[in-house]
Amino acid sequence: MYNIAAHCCVSVKDMNIVIEGVDIKTANITDPCEMSETYNIFLNENFDQQLEAPTEPGHTQCYYVDYNDNSLAGDANDELGPISFNAQTYGDAGARVTFQGYGIKLYDSDKNFLEFDNNGDGEPNYSPNAIGNTLYIEGITPGISTLTVILKTQDGFTASDQLLIKVIPLNLTADDPAPSSDQHEICHKDKLIIAVNTNDSDGDGTIDLLDSNVPGGDPDLAMITLQSPYYAEESDISGGIINVTFRDCSISTGIFNDI
Question: Whole-model pTM?
């Protein structure tokens, strides 16, 4: 808040001027780079929330992927993109904020779903004080999107800020035997069953399950493909896959030829 005064002899007239503003940011990207560097999050297409879908014949239990609902209940924290939110309104009770974006979903500090105003008509809008200091982003479509926040003052002036978001998919696909679709990778039991590998393909007296060397390759292995995350550059991702987890056991990093 600033004060401006005009003087003419002994006559004085003054008024207060408030400069309001809004800011969204991440810990590792500076303000000048918010539209040149991307804030990277993963596509939230797993099944942690266990959102029940109609079960199809031959399936153990069908689920919708996690981004199909407008709730974060049951999602792991590393599947969300937290960013800081700061609005300075200096007592302007009529100030409101709107958000715009595609390929992502947005939630407030209490993880309540926030709708986008992609029509630009000012609806829906929210009180800045009710949102809190943290926003959570959920990735729903692979690619690059721009998150925009617009603050409108009680006098009709606007301020805005933007952040470049990259949604990166990580896709593990069963190729043979293959499920009917990505949606049914964990429930289509008729397509995901493989036999215990107890035969001896090379006739060396050791069953294939215990044989680390099967000349020409073991013909009884199931094939799984880990797709390199598209839209991602080398600088976007550090490290590698650190854990492979099965439903009933967890196995640390390695190359798995037999299950």
Answer: 0.81
